[in-house]
């Protein structure tokens, strides 16, 4: 209980400290000397091509008139080969680093031999690479350097798409550089928006502590010994500002105090920085007909094209990049060219030319007023960041993109007058002392009371409810939404939040923007609360037709708001165990399965007309599974096509799902990808994997180290950690709770795994074994032979094969085994040329029917 009280007190202190920091920032012109520096940002999608030996990047990077103090360069698609998914090869990264360093060195020396640069940091996520260089004379003023990456590719875990970032403190200004590669495709605007939201909300820089004179306001124990009291759990009678003064006075030398103080590992988010530069291949297109765009380019009529530029439109609608700015575009679209030419795409796809490669920036304060460049105080406000140019390097033609760069003049907080800042701080502390009792976080919630009611939710449905939260108090508000069980006497029980076994519903809730959420004074935020059933919880919901729960919108140090959640569910066959389906019927006269009993008994509609013709096959799979398999088995199935990114991104399973709910099992009108993915969804929704958990434990954990795949952490529904987002896209592949580890699609399969498959099959129950072999026949039909693998070695084909392996293995095993075990298992099944001879037959029919 003492610890809880101490934590609550610490939270109140931290909130006051943050408020003091905000107020101090508002007056930083009174104690700050500014200096202007040049910053160059560049982005280039190299289309998986090595730099030609004769290529020069000078046009892209060099500026004859100005010497950049900071150079940040982002690359995309430096390596999109299948190997990039399997292992970390630094060869291409090193090649680009060498060429970039050589170019920067040449550009600097062309103006003066004293202009040397040092690499501050670099970060890579598969094909996405970011370098940040700083002129040598400023390197010592770069502190709190950190990097981060966020994947947004396949299932938000593959790194073919995503973002990388580097942040550091430059003198007294916190700067962040983000390089990104968003989803491709003309009609994928929303996916690109989602990629931005994912990177913006998830990227956090936590590699190390931060240092600055101003950071001492975060310190709370009244002692100079950071380690002896920070975690002691003892309450203190000192007021928070007394702690600050006592700690500061413990150092005789102010400079020593500034250097020694360590902020307790503040998690820097992108939005926390003073200046943000965000660039990359954002893939936003021009929403006009291809012919119109090409004609406008020929006529050099750029303004009409920019009016339909997707990124500009989305920013205008406040959907992405809120408060970001972009310099005027005065160059032709940078994508897509025939490599080595100035001709836009003439391939079969005939891509619409677009400005996919962009550079944006954002500042906390747009303008400042103060002492500039060691001169006297200036009266006029100056821009914190002023774009000087926005440039496309036309001479660099080896890729299908053109590199883009932009030069900025940034006003940096160069020096601080500590005496004056302390005077302002003490003045603010006195003001806060008077306001302390009145500064209680207060929100207004609409609608009031918030009542979330979702009726008749089916599997794959995604329903949403919007809550508008407005900060009507005098201090910022920290909000979080959690089940009522997580609170005790107004306090959060523990962190991270452990959900009870009966609170699995909460993991099916999604919150956009992600929570916890910080709302500034007088600001308003709309939270979109979504509900969609995840496959791993489908069986639990099949037994629970209604959810009635209480959620709490918790305001730190303020009044909480209760939110009622009322959901009625109809899971249909999803989540239903195989033995809970109606008994499978077989028409002995027509030698066919019966998918519609009424039709079978109706002689006028081609049925048998005799009840005696119908046989119950208790050991055969349910009719729904048979109908899907039978519809697929006679078709030509293309693995690369079914599991390609384009097909998966545009998949709509709702019409097929509706037919299943209506017990209409005539699936001839549906595409192969829809039928196969629906079958995979059904399998992953089973309460127990088709290959049961116990069998997997007996086989995979039997001590064979060759295919054990490392430490195994099975997923359970007994306890799950709180997740701020729980969205399920009905078009996406079923996902695993474990991290996505890609196996080699063409390496050897150990004999131990092949033997394990044989042993496993013998342990299956009759109905499960019957379904397993039918699925195996179907899956083997779509699997590529070795020669086909070698012919399809492109990055798109490799991604499709990996998607296939992960999807099929999850369908049969769920995520009880490790990813490596699952992948080897499914390959051992698919690449075995013998199982067809061992497939059991039903007691009353053949599988060919």
TrEMBL record:
GO terms for molecular function: phosphatidylinositol-4,5-bisphosphate 5-phosphatase activity. Residues 1-20, 711-741 are annotated as: Disordered. Residues 727-741 have a biased composition (Low complexity). Pfam families: Exo_endo_phos2 (PF22669), OCRL-like_ASH (PF21310). GO terms for biological process: phosphatidylinositol dephosphorylation. Residues 35-417 form the Inositol polyphosphate-related phosphatase domain. InterPro entries: Endo/exonu/phosph_ase_sf (IPR036691), Ig-like_fold (IPR013783), IP5 (IPR046985), IPPc (IPR000300), OCRL-1_2_ASH (IPR048869), Rho_GTPase_activation_prot (IPR008936). This is Inositol polyphosphate-related phosphatase domain-containing protein. It comes from Didymodactylos carnosus.
């Amino acid at each position: 209980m003492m610890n809880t009280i101490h934590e609550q007190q610490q939270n109140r202190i931290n909130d006051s400290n943050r408020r003091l920091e905000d107020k101090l920032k508002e007056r930083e012109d009174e104690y700050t000397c500014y200096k202007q520096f040049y910053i160059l940002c560049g982005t280039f999608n190299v289309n998986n091509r090595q730099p030609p030996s004769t290529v020069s990047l000078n046009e892209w990077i060099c500026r004859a008139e100005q010497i950049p103090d900071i150079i940040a360069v982002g690359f995309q698609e430096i390596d999109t080969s299948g190997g990039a998914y399997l292992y970390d090869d630094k060869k291409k990264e090193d090649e680009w680093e060498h060429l970039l360093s050589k170019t920067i060195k040449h550009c600097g020396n062309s103006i003066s031999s004293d202009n040397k640069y040092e690499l501050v940091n670099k970060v890579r996520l598969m094909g996405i690479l970011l370098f940040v260089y700083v002129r040598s004379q400023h390197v010592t003023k770069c502190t709190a350097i950190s990097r981060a990456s966020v994947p947004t590719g396949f299932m938000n875990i593959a790194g073919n798409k995503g973002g990388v970032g580097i942040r550091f403190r430059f003198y007294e200004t916190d700067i962040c550089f983000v390089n990104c590669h968003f989803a491709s495709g003309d009609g994928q605007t929303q996916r690109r928006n989602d990629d931005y939201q994912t990177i913006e909300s998830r990227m956090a820089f936590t590699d190390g502590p931060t240092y600055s004179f101003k950071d001492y306001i975060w310190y709370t124990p009244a002692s100079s010994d950071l380690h002896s009291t920070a975690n002691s759990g003892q309450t203190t009678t000192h007021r928070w500002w007394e702690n600050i003064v006592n700690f500061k006075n413990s150092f005789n030398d102010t400079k020593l105090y500034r250097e020694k103080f360590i902020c307790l590992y503040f998690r820097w988010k992108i939005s926390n920085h003073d200046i943000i530069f965000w660039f990359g291949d954002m893939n936003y297109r021009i929403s006009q007909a291809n012919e119109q765009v090409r004609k406008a380019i020929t006529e050099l009529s750029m303004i009409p094209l920019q009016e339909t530029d997707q990124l500009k439109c989305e920013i205008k609608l406040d959907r992405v990049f809120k408060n970001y700015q972009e310099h005027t575009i005065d160059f032709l679209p940078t994508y897509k060219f025939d490599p080595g030419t100035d001709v836009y795409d003439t391939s079969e796809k005939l891509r619409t030319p677009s400005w996919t490669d962009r550079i944006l920036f954002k500042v906390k304060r747009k303008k400042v007023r103060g002492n500039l460049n060691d001169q006297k105080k200036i009266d006029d406000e100056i821009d914190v960041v002023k774009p000087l140019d926005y440039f496309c390097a036309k001479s660099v033609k080896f890729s299908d993109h053109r590199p883009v760069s932009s030069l900025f003049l940034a006003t940096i907080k160069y020096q601080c007058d500590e005496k004056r800042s302390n005077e302002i701080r003490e003045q603010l502390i006195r003001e806060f002392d008077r306001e302390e009792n009145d500064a209680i976080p207060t929100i207004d919630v609409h609608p009031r009371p918030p009542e979330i009611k979702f009726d008749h939710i089916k599997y794959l449905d995604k329903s949403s409810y919007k809550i508008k939260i407005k900060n009507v108090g005098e201090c910022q508000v920290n909000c979080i939404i959690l089940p009522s069980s997580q609170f005790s006497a107004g306090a959060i029980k523990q962190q991270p939040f452990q959900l009870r076994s009966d609170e699995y519903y909460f993991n099916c809730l999604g919150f956009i923007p992600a929570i916890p959420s910080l709302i500034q004074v007088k600001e308003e935020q709309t939270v979109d609360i979504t509900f969609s059933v995840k496959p791993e919880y489908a069986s639990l919901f099949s037994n629970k037709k209604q959810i009635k729960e209480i959620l709490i919108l918790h305001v730190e140090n303020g009044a909480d708001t209760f939110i009622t959640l009322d959901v009625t569910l109809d899971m249909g066959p999803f989540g239903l165990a195989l033995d809970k389906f109606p008994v499978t019927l077989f028409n002995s006269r027509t030698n066919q399965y019966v998918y519609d009993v009424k039709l079978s008994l109706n002689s006028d509609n081609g049925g048998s007309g005799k009840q005696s013709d119908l046989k119950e096959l208790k050991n055969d799979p349910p009719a729904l599974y048979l109908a899907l398999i039978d519809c697929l088995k006679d078709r030509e199935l293309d693995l690369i096509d079914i599991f390609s990114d384009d097909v998966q991104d545009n998949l709509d399973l709702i019409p097929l799902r509706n037919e299943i709910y209506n017990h209409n099992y005539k699936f001839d009108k549906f595409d192969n990808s829809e039928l196969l993915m629906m079958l995979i969804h059904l399998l992953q929704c089973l309460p127990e994997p088709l290959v049961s958990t116990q069998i997997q434990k007996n086989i995979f954990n039997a001590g064979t180290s060759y295919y054990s795949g490392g430490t195994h952490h099975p997923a359970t529904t007994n306890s799950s950690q709180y997740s701020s987002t729980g969205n399920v896209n009905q078009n996406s592949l079923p996902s695993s709770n474990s991290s996505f580890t890609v196996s080699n699609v063409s390496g050897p399969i150990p004999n131990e795994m092949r033997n394990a498959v044989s042993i496993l099959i013998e342990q299956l129950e009759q109905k499960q074994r019957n379904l397993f072999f039918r699925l195996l026949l179907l899956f083997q039909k779509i699997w590529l032979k070795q020669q086909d693998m070698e012919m399809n070695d492109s990055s798109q084909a490799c991604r499709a094969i990996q998607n296939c392996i992960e999807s099929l293995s999850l369908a049969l095993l769920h995520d009880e085994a490790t990813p490596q075990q699952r992948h080897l298992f499914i390959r051992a099944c698919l690449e075995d040329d013998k199982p067809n001879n061992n497939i059991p037959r039903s007691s009353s029919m053949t599988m060919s029917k």
